[in-house]
Structures are given as structure tokens and as C-alpha cells.
Design a protein that fits this description.
heterodimer; A: 200 residues; alpha+beta; Jelly Rolls; 4-stranded antiparallel β-sheet; 9 helices; 22% strand; B: 210 residues; 21% strand
């Protein structure tokens, strides 16, 4: 189970076995059924979670509408990170979509290993930098790309999620109406990326 | 605005204080970092980094005022307004070493304390304290970013306007209105109207916005 975490970590920093053990010793394995709520707004996030198996979504309500901000699958991190990092109450719900296994680490334990190893501290810095960049990239894409471009880009990057995630959630994540999502899905299936966009 | 000309020394002391918020750091330790810092000066209305260039620096504003925007079709979407003590750079370009999709332009004459990508890596390698400062800084940035993202989604136009005006009174004086409007994702007309509202009735009534 730790293998996939090790691979993930190595993408940022090559840790020695001793260093990785420091981290691994602190890890808690948590398993959940599908449709279990892990966190709700107002609660503090205690864990940074690495998805070993399953699928998790993060969302909040704008009025009565759910807005999904993250869908995490195997090999990805999920956490109400701002709450986790700052200790302030979470803005978000976190819920499993499939039976899920997480490798989790508390903030205290993480701070503790940072003190023991500069390289793990570097790992922390690089991972958080990556969060910031992903957020930034996502915001820029939302401003720069139109609906169709956002859809195409997402499908290219996450082909398997189309099968696993209910369509309405994907639509919410991509900030488009479910009808638009269906229409685009058909378009893409029929003729891959030719001709000019029919709308606008 | 009409400040007496600030000195580098004052600005560096300010930077030292800023960094000390994250981790106690002595004058001597701070002095070790100084050789890595470049001072860069720009006139007003100067493009510091253009679209398509690769960002070489992370910049802290010693003094001055800049905006960062995304050119989108025939519009410019302001994504950051930064003044003294703020960090500004084309971050995606800087971290991924890819061409910038955003533009950074000065609004006032501006001086940056800049650290190049290479210098920053060296600092991290040589000084564990730099590593920690880096982590805490980026963490702080992430939390702020998340809060801003959330505000944008959750608050209505009026709330976004009022909150910004209250928390950034000096920016309202210094930054052209259209840039603030763009930053808050509010139409310039709406922005003017809201500005009048606040001036007249303080924070009272004015109902019917949603």
C-alpha cells in the first residue's frame, strides 16, 4: 500500500529509506464505504490524505447548488488543505464516491517529521507549491478557455473519470450545465476535434 | 503617493520583519540571503514580464504598485493588484519553466527585490531556514488563495466590493478603478454605482442587490 505513496513522493524528492520510514511510521490507514462523508464545512480538517483506492469529491454549496472543486482518484491527494494547513474551519464537504482507502497524516505528525528532516520539509514545500500551481492553472483555464475547450482538456487528461464519476458531478466540476456536458460528450465521441466550434 | 522617497535600507528592514513573521531569523542570518537578492527598478507603465516570456524571478515589492493580468481575447482580466511587501511573479511560468500566459505591468514607478530561479534553488540547498521559510510562505499563499477563490464564488458583487474597499482603502486611492473592477469581476459601471452608494450612506440600507 505504501508503494504508490513512495512513487508519488519520489516525483518530488528522492527520499532515503530512513527518511521515507519517518513519514510512513506516522501514517494512518483509513477505509470508507461509498458515499461516506469525511468532512463538512465548519469542521477542522485533521488529515492530509493520499488516495490508495477509490474516489473522493470535495464540494460546497453556493445557494442550493453544489459546486465541486476537486475529484481525487488513486495516486492523488485530497484534503480541505487550507483548513488543514491553517487550522481554520473547512469551507468544504469531502465525500467518497466509491469504497475508498486513504493513507492519512495529521498536521502535528507532519510538522514533527519536518523538524526531523529537511528533505521532507522540502517535499512539503514542493507539494504545497504544486497545489497552488494547480489552483492557479485551473483559474486561468476557466478564464481563458471556453466551455468546449475546458471539456476537451479535461477529457484528455482524465479519460477514466468519465466512466467512474456521475455526469452531473463532472459538469459541476467543469462549471457547466449538465445538458451542456451531455451535448459536448456526444460531439466529442462522433468526430474528434475537427471543424470549427458550432456555437457562438 | 506623496511619501518621502523610501530607502532601500528601510525596505530591506521591512522584508526582514516580513520573513520573521514565519520564523525567527537574526540580522546576521538575514544578511546571508542578501547576496541572492537583486534590486530591479521600473518606470510606471512598464511591462515587467510579457506574455510568452519565461519568468526568471520571484519579486517582492520594495515600493510601488503593479498589476498582473491575463490577456483573454480582446480583454485583460486583472488577477492581482500588488503593492509594498507583496509578492508578485508569473508563478506558473516561474515554477514550471514555461512561457508566461500572464502579463505583469507597473502602475507606479516600482522597485522589486528579486530572487532568480537559480538563486532560489541555491538558497534552498544551502540554508535549511530558507527551506522552512519557503514552505511557510507558500502555505500562507495557498491559504490566502483558497480564501479568495471562495470569496469570489460565494459573495455577491456588493459584498465583494465592500469587503475589498474596507480592507484595501489605500488601493482604492492608488489603482485605476477599471483595474479594481476587473480584479473583483465587477462591471466598471457597477463599480462606480457601488462607490457612490458607500460614499453617501455609510454602510446603511441600500437594499435589493443580490
Amino acid at each position: 500500500m505504501l508503494e504508490s505513496l513512495r512513487r508519488y513522493v519520489t516525483g518530488y524528492v528522492a527520499l532515503s529509506n530512513e527518511e521515507f520510514t519517518l513519514l510512513a511510521e506516522k501514517i494512518v490507514v483509513r477505509t470508507f464505504d461509498r458515499r461516506q462523508q469525511l468532512l463538512e464545512p465548519g469542521e477542522a480538517e485533521h488529515y492530509m490524505n493520499f488516495v490508495v483506492k477509490g474516489l473522493v469529491r470535495m464540494y460546497f454549496y453556493r445557494g442550493k447548488t453544489e459546486v465541486i472543486t476537486n475529484i481525487a482518484k488513486e495516486g492523488e491527494l485530497v484534503s480541505s488543505s487550507a483548513s488543514f494547513l491553517s487550522g481554520t474551519p473547512s469551507h468544504y464537504f469531502i465525500e467518497t464516491l466509491e469504497p475508498t482507502t486513504l493513507l492519512s497524516l495529521t498536521r502535528e505528525d507532519l510538522e514533527d517529521v519536518y523538524r526531523q528532516s529537511v528533505r521532507i520539509e522540502r517535499l512539503g514545500r514542493l507539494m504545497i507549491t504544486q497545489f497552488v500551481m494547480q489552483k492557479e492553472e485551473w483559474e486561468h483555464e476557466c478564464m481563458r478557455l471556453d466551455t468546449r475547450e475546458r471539456f476537451t482538456r479535461f477529457v484528455e487528461k482524465n479519460p477514466e473519470l468519465i466512466q467512474r464519476v456521475p455526469q452531473k458531478y463532472l459538469a459541476s466540476y467543469l462549471n457547466m450545465k449538465p445538458e451542456t456536458f451531455s451535448r459536448l460528450k456526444h460531439l466529442v465521441r462522433k468526430r474528434p476535434a475537427v471543424g470549427k466550434p458550432s456555437t457562438k | 503617493m506623496s511619501n518621502p522617497l523610501p530607502s532601500y535600507k528601510t525596505a530591506l528592514d521591512e522584508l526582514h520583519r516580513y520573513v520573521s513573521r514565519f520564523i525567527p531569523i537574526s540580522k546576521q542570518e538575514f544578511a546571508q540571503f542578501l547576496p541572492y537578492i537583486e534590486i530591479r527598478e521600473f518606470e510606471k507603465r512598464t511591462i515587467v514580464i510579457g506574455k510568452g516570456e519565461v519568468e526568471r524571478y520571484i519579486n517582492i515589492i520594495a515600493w510601488g504598485l503593479v498589476r498582473k493580468y491575463l490577456p483573454v481575447r480582446n480583454r485583460e482580466i486583472t488577477v492581482q493588484l500588488a503593492s509594498e511587501g507583496h509578492i508578485v511573479h508569473s508563478d506558473l511560468s516561474f515554477h514550471y519553466r514555461i512561457p508566461s500566459s500572464s502579463v505583469i505591468e507597473t502602475i507606479e514607478p516600482t522597485v522589486f527585490f528579486s530572487i532568480s530561479y537559480e538563486s532560489l534553488q541555491e538558497l534552498y540547498d544551502l540554508y535549511p531556514k530558507a527551506e522552512r521559510i519557503g514552505r511557510l510562505l507558500i502555505t500562507d499563499l495557498f491559504v490566502k488563495k483558497d480564501n479568495r477563490y471562495f470569496d469570489q464564488l460565494r459573495k455577491n458583487t456588493r459584498e465583494r466590493f465592500l469587503d475589498y474597499v474596507r480592507s484595501h482603502p489605500q488601493m482604492v486611492q492608488r489603482v485605476p478603478q477599471k483595474y479594481i473592477a476587473s480584479y473583483l469581476n465587477i462591471k466598471p459601471e457597477t463599480f462606480s454605482r457601488l462607490k457612490h452608494l458607500t460614499r453617501r450612506g455609510g454602510a446603511s440600507s441600500a437594499k435589493g442587490q443580490s
